[in-house]
UniProtKB/TrEMBL annotation:
Protein name stated in the entry: ADP,ATP carrier protein
Regions that span the bilayer: 101-118, 130-150, 170-190, 202-222, 228-245, 382-399, 482-501
High-level lineage: Eukaryota, Sar, Stramenopiles, Ochrophyta, Bacillariophyta
Compartments it resides in: Membrane
PANTHER family, sorted: ADP,ATP CARRIER PROTEIN 1 (PTHR31187:SF1), PTHR31187
Keyword Protease tagged: no
Region (Disordered): 527-547
GO MF annotation terms: ATP binding; ATP:ADP antiporter activity
Family of the protein in this entry: Belongs to the ADP/ATP translocase tlc family.
Keywords for this protein: ATP-binding, Membrane, Nucleotide-binding, Transmembrane, Transmembrane helix, Transport
Membrane topology: Multi-pass membrane protein
GO cellular component: membrane
Thylakoid among keywords: no
């Protein structure tokens, strides 16, 4: 029996050892499978990151840039919601026929807001604190505005007839415009001051694309939930996104530290000279004027091309769905007939799809194209590439017979090239400058310069009561004459870009630090709020002439 017991014990021991081996083998297999799964995920993420950012940007830098891009996403989402509700709110309270007047008043109010902005910038020593100030400012302003909107007698959206004497509608319209100007400018000013040029080349297109995604997300929020929760509730959602932006900036400062502090001065808030300092810097320095040309001049061409497409679409569908005598669109006195119902629907459908395609190209082109183009050609040559594209589209308008779909393709090409090439490169032009240019001069270009140039573009394509435009009597001749104007403007942009890129490349590659400092108005160590005499002495450094 003892021998039998020994045999059974040995068999049990062998089974236990085999079970242990199986468990151990299974444990290693599971670990190996988990490791393979993680490697697959990391490999997929790595391939996507390499496709978008390239191989020159470190993973830690990518994470830092993505945190900044998240802040822009939140800002643009708020802006998308606010601009989606802007017209419905103004139309319900005041009336959309007063919108041109509201735009003019908002433009005039921008100058006052810019003076206020410049004073606030001069009074804060830590740049990231500006986000906190303006986030709290707009949060309180819009929350008060929202309370008035839901008030049964003051707001009463849809319950009262529109009245131009109701101040709330005018105030809401202007406040939304000022939020767009200040917060987006503040983001790019901060980003240009903390991101090195080597990183900006690979990441600025991605940052801009993520911002456009945020704007699209805000528009979709209103599109899908506006009719369900109401206009006022969507307005509040936009306000909540401001808090999201502030939390992202706080996370960035907590994780990566604050930008170098600016020395404060007790006289900053008492002095009035800083209100127009950004305008003064713009007028004084040719380099900044050159950036304004690159930023704004193409908007005239964009307006001409978009209006040409709109007028060609109306002409095309008015011929397909002609207005016959006896219909409401027929005008026997002037001989100028309006569009039929079918033609209007087709024009609206075309405009919708063109806007959708425009959104897509302004997201996809910078997301996948900016880094490739800028890495291949560098910032200076990339800066020249966009005016060349503008010249190309102008020649198409001049040479080819007016064609609706050709003009639409030109419009999409301009929008995509602007997002992928012009926007990232013109932001990089601010990197070598100092905080005075980045925070105070840039906002004048992006607000007053931008709106003024857009107004000129609309003035060139304005249709009179007789059906004629400023340039031509038909959409076809508008295409040709507008193309000539666009060609001249593109030549001017190319000449200015050539001067800017030559100076940019020369000073960045110079081995003499004093050359870079003299040419790029390096105010990085100059307090924004220092005394007038000290500020004047520092600004005596002249930029190279663009001539």
């Amino acid at each position: 029996m003892s021998d039998l017991d020994d045999i059974l014990e040995d068999a049990d021991a062998n089974e236990i050892d085999e079970d242990d081996e199986d468990k151990e083998y299974g444990f290693f297999e599971r670990n190996r499978a988990a490791s393979s799964s993680n490697n697959a995920v990391n490999g997929s993420y790595g391939r996507i990151a390499t496709l978008i950012f390239g191989t020159d940007v470190q993973p830690d830098e990518i994470k830092r840039i993505m945190v900044l891009a998240s802040a822009l996403f939140a800002i643009e989402m708020s802006d998308g919601i606010f601009h989606s509700v802007q017209d419905p709110i103004f139309g319900a309270i005041v009336g959309l026929n007063f919108k041109p007047l509201a735009m003019a008043i908002s433009f005039a109010a921008t100058i006052v807001i810019l003076c206020f902005y410049s004073k606030v910038v001069g009074c804060y020593s830590r740049r990231h604190d500006l986000f906190g100030f303006f986030a709290n400012f707009f949060f309180g302003l819009f929350m008060l505005n929202a309370l008035f909107l839901i008030h049964p007698s003051i707001g009463a959206l849809g319950a009262r007839a529109p009245d131009p004497l109701r101040i709330l509608g005018w105030f809401t319209f202007g406040a939304i415009d000022q939020f767009d100007i200040i917060m987006i400018n503040l983001f790019w000013s901060f980003t240009n001051s903390v991101v090195p040029l080597s990183s900006a080349k690979a990441t600025y297109g991605v940052v801009f694309a993520i911002g456009q995604l945020g704007n699209l997300a805000g528009s979709l929020v209103f599109l899908f939930f506006g009719s369900v929760v109401g206009i006022s509730a969507c307005f509040v959602l936009g306000i909540m996104s401001i808090l999201l932006m502030q939390s992202v900036i706080n996370k960035y400062v907590e994780s990566y530290g604050a930008a170098p502090a600016i020395e404060s001065s007790s006289s900053c808030c008492a002095s009035c000279c800083g209100c127009l300092e950004g305008l003064w810097l713009f007028l004084r320095h040719n380099y900044v004027k050159g950036i304004s040309v690159i930023t704004c001049l193409y908007l005239i061409q964009l307006s001409v091309v978009s209006k040409t497409a709109e007028y060609l679409a109306k002409d095309h569908f008015s011929q397909v769905y002609g207005c016959e005598q006896g219909q409401s669109c027929y005008n026997s006195y002037t001989g100028i007939h309006s569009l039929t119902y079918e033609a209007e629907k087709h024009v609206e459908s075309l405009v919708y799809y063109v806007n959708l395609l425009t959104r897509l190209v302004t997201i996809l082109f910078p997301l996948f194209g900016s880094r490739i183009i800028i890495d291949r050609y560098g910032v200076p040559k990339s800066l020249l590439l966009f005016p060349v594209i503008c010249l190309f589209t102008s020649l198409i308008l001049i040479i080819y017979p007016p064609n609706l779909y050709m003009v639409v393709l030109c419009l999409l090409l301009l929008e995509g090239a602007s997002a992928a090439i012009n926007t990232p490169t013109k932001e990089m032009l601010y990197i070598p400058t100092g905080i005075a240019i980045q925070y105070k001069a840039r906002i004048w270009i992006e607000s007053i310069g931008y709106d003024s140039t857009q107004f000129l573009g609309y003035a060139f394509t304005w249709k009179t009561s007789g059906g004629d435009t400023t340039f031509a009597t038909t959409a076809g001749t508008l295409s040709t004459k507008g193309g000539l104007l666009c060609f001249v403007l593109a030549l001017i942009s190319f000449a200015v870009a050539r001067c800017l890129c030559n100076e940019f490349e020369q000073k960045l590659t110079s081995s003499r630090p004093e050359d870079r400092e003299e040419s790029f108005i390096n105010y990085q160590n100059v307090p924004l709020n220092q005394d007038d005499d000290e500020r004047t002495d520092q600004y005596d450094v002249e930029l190279p002439s663009l001539s």
